[in-house]
Design a protein that fits this description.
Largest sheet: none
Number of helices: 3
Strand content: under 5%
Order of helices and strands: HHH
Shape: elongated
Distance between the termini: 30 Å
Radius of gyration: 16 Å
Number of strands: 0
Structural class: mainly alpha
Number of domains: 1
Helix content: 40-55%
């Protein structure tokens, strides 16, 4: 069963907002890559909003590379 169909069933009670997405974001399998990217971005933003950093440390290069890859693949 596709995620979009499962969420459409009334007994689940889930909405796109529960996945940290907007109602206009596609949940179809054809748009799975975009779904994963938007979900990851939303979760990272939620984490950043809820975690207080007391000391600023430089990020490892692999993290910087991954962030750059995410932002360039979205364009």
């Amino acid at each position: 069963m596709a995620l979009v169909d499962w969420m459409a069933e009334s007994h689940t009670g889930f909405k796109a907002a529960d996945l940290q997405l907007t109602e206009k974001d596609s949940l179809s399998f054809a748009d799975f890559e975009a779904f994963c990217r938007k979900r990851r971005e939303a979760l990272l933003q939620r984490l950043r909003d809820n975690v207080e950093v007391t000391t600023s440390l430089p990020l490892p290069q692999e993290v910087l590379d991954e962030e750059e890859e995410l932002t360039t693949s979205a364009e």
